[in-house]
Design a protein that fits this description.
The complex is a heterodimer of chains A (397) and B (309). With 397 residues, chain A is of the alpha/beta class. In chain A, 46% of the residues lie in helices and 18% in strands. Chain B has a two-stranded antiparallel sheet with strand order 1-2. The chains are: A alpha/beta (397), B mainly alpha (309).
């Protein structure tokens, strides 16, 4: 067992090293060019690393890929600008999106003394599993997408995130639903995320006098026929599903088959191309609440959108802009720490706490518990097989 | 009443698919007295095989003319059945026959089956990706309501599933009771050494039994994928359920597997009717299974190895 996990870590390490060589190869010509340009070659030789922990393999790797691409882009841009006064590299660490692989992934980043701060962990489960370890190492974390509400009250002193929690998202989604519906069916997938957000939605709705029916369907279910029939027969005018994209897609098909005509809503876990491709036409008309921004339509994100598309040949997707903001905010904190001289993990972490960075999705400024000071929940709708942003959910009718 | 009928229609649809898969377990148990735990992956490979063919025929499904739909469906069923039968045949050759030739203990077959199951599921994951919600191209209006049964809508897809399952089961029933192959399957089930003395080629019979089980499982894979979704892990749950259905009906008993599958599918879909939360579905289904086995330890129709039904 021990040798096997060692081998795994070694494999990740080698993969990381290869990625690094690839990075340095591509950036070295521009680096020497800058040196020749006459900037102080003394400090620009110094290299620091930005850590990234997230799912780069496994079922949910797409989110991780969306995010690491943004981090790489942000770091490349910072290096090319030439006003950093130091060089940056990315050290990525794959946790497969699962809590049991997270400690090894965190150890990889902590062992490298050039890593002063981390973008991630990107999922809530791996964050719970490693928050204490990172805190003990004084390593500052900025997560672009870990949304479980309890993460900022678990003693993870170096954890920050730039997205609203499931609690905030669920409350606002429920308030929007309550505007037009008197009877709502709330279904969850019995997972920590799904049940958490569904609980918040149900509670908020009941607080507003809406009649709520609550049921759970295990996330391993393949046949949603029975629950879809139950939702349709209940006479509810709206349905909220707390769960992830692949299952939501199956549920969408079953709801259409059973002839449900009401509003269909889910949270950030359902908003992805996995849902769109899995549900097909049945997904059209679904709404999504998400504390995230669609970079392909938001005007603030135009430059980012262009650069990302040019570099990766694919438009930025869910949580790409958030990861870009997290990386740029962390680079900003590095700059502050380097300017103060002799940067350490502690000084970077201090700089993160005092950040006030204007990003493309939000103003990156943290409350003392690590929550972002201001967070917007957006409403999305799938139209003709594409998920489009409708805008701030508080302003939707 | 309308609600009740709607759930019943859903239950019969799901039950017919369970029955098709359950037959694969029961047939193999009949001839070898072992549970082929890799049968769930035979089912899964059928779904992928038919997906490849259907995708080849209709592309993304847009603009498929109505007259072509029945042919696409038949091609889907056939390609699923043939792929799965090929996998089942190979499985018997690779994972079971060498053990049988060397007189390995029963436990070794079980381990071999589980190994083959992991192998096939992971292989499909490597080849086709690990998405759990792949779907067939939308080449027809599968939710079109054909008629109402006591107020409950009955849709085209449900008719196709139940209809093709019934046809296949009738065919199987005839095959086992009144053909030469059926007779040798029954003979091997009843007493393999004596059957061999009577001039029946046991290896051939076992091989063909796997192929028949694979044909039915693969067809079910296509129907299942059409109704829900397909992915490399899709076999596990229906596999366990269908195995339970086979036991419920009486393992080794062909008509028992059909009835067991139907009963399990209906029971699962009746859970919301009695106002139990749907997250209790599996609990209720297996409580029913245990209750049935307490009173009829050999299943609804009883173990009747080696007989026509």
């Amino acid at each position: 067992m021990r040798t096997r996990s060692l081998a795994k870590i070694a494999a990740i390490g080698i993969a990381g090293a290869l990625a690094l060589t690839a990075c340095s190869n591509s950036s070295s010509p521009s680096g020497t060019g800058l040196g020749g340009g006459g900037s102080s070659s003394n400090t620009s030789n110094k290299t620091y690393k930005i850590g990234f922990q997230g799912a780069l393999s496994g079922d949910n790797q797409q989110l991780g890929i969306n995010e690491i691409n943004s981090v790489n882009l942000a770091v490349d841009e910072a290096n090319q600008k030439g006003d950093l006064g130091f060089k940056l590299e990315v050290l990525k660490s794959d946790d497969g999106g699962t809590a049991d692989k997270a400690p090894a992934a965190a150890a990889l980043l902590i062992q490298d003394t050039a890593v002063l701060g981390v973008v991630g962990p990107i999922f809530s489960g791996p964050t719970s599993a490693t928050g204490k370890t990172y805190a003990a190492a004084n390593m500052g974390l900025i997560s672009p997408s870990a949304t479980n509400a309890t993460l900022t009250s678990s003693g993870f002193t170096t954890f920050h995130r730039i997205v609203p929690t499931d609690g905030v998202e669920g409350t606002q989604a429920a308030e929007w639903l309550a505007k037009k519906n008197k009877k709502v069916f709330v279904v969850d997938d019995t997972s920590v995320y799904g049940k958490g957000v569904a609980d918040v939605v149900a509670k908020t709705l009941q607080g507003k006098g809406v009649s709520v029916t609550r049921q759970g369907v295990a996330a391993t279910t393949q046949d949603y026929g029975a629950i879809a029939q139950t939702v349709t027969s209940s006479g509810a005018t709206a349905m909220f599903y707390g769960g992830y994209d692949a299952q939501a897609a199956l549920f969408a098909k079953a709801l259409t088959a059973s002839g449900f005509k009401g509003l269909r809503v889910t949270g950030n876990g359902g908003k992805s191309t996995v849902f769109t491709s899995g549900s097909g036409a049945a997904g059209n008309g679904w709404y999504f609440s998400c504390g995230c921004q669609d970079a392909t339509t938001a005007p603030e994100a135009k430059a980012f959108n262009d650069a990302y598309t040019a570099k990766y040949n694919t438009p930025p997707s869910t949580y790409s802009p958030e990861a870009y903001d997290a990386a740029n905010a962390l680079i900003d904190a590095y700059k502050t720490a380097v300017a103060a001289g002799n940067p350490t993990r502690q000084s970077v972490e201090d700089a993160i706490s005092k950040l006030d960075y204007k990003g493309i999705t939000t103003e990156v400024k943290f409350a003392s518990n690590g929550e972002v000071a201001q967070a917007t929940v957006n409403l999305y709708e799938q139209k003709d097989g594409k998920i489009v942003q409708l805008g701030n959910i508080l302003q939707q009718s | 009443m309308t609600d009740f009928m709607s759930y019943l229609v859903l239950g019969i649809t799901r039950g017919s698919m369970y029955a098709l898969i359950a037959l694969g377990y029961t047939l193999v148990y009949g001839v070898l007295q072992l549970i082929n735990f890799a049968h769930s992956e035979v089912f899964m490979s059928g779904a992928f095989g038919s997906y490849a063919i259907v995708h080849l025929l209709v592309g993304d499904g847009k603009g498929t003319p109505a007259w072509a739909v029945p042919f696409v469906l038949i091609a889907g069923i056939l390609s699923g059945a043939i792929t799965a039968a090929a996998i089942a045949w190979t499985l018997e050759r690779v994972a079971y026959r060498p053990l049988r030739k060397r007189g390995a203990p029963k436990l070794a077959f079980l381990i071999s089956a589980i190994g083959a199951s992991f192998f096939l599921s992971q292989l499909a994951g490597k080849l086709f990706g690990r998405l759990t919600s792949n779907s067939f191209p939308a080449f027809w209006d599968q939710n079109h309501i054909i008629f109402h049964l006591f107020g409950a809508p009955v849709r085209t897809l449900q008719i196709v599933i139940v209809g093709s399952a019934v046809v296949m089961m009738l065919f199987l029933d005839r095959l086992v009771s009144s053909t030469k192959l059926g007779r040798s399957i029954r003979a091997v089930s009843e007493d393999a050494p004596t059957a061999a003395l009577m001039g029946i080629d046991i290896d051939k019979t076992i091989s063909r039994t796997f192929i028949i089980g694979g044909l039915l499982g693969g067809a079910a894979g296509f129907l299942f994928g059409l109704n829900f979704s397909l992915g490399n892990t899709m076999g596990f749950l229906p596999g366990v359920k269908a195995f339970a259905a086979a036991v419920l009906g009486g393992i080794g008993n062909i008509r028992g597997a059909m009835i067991g599958g139907l009963v399990l599918g209906i029971v699962e879909n009746m859970v919301p009717v009695v106002h139990i939360d749907t997250s209790w579905t599996d609990v209720v289904a297996f409580v029913v299974l245990v209750l049935v086995l307490m009173f009829r330890p050999t299943g609804i129709l009883g173990e009747r190895l080696g007989r026509a039904a």
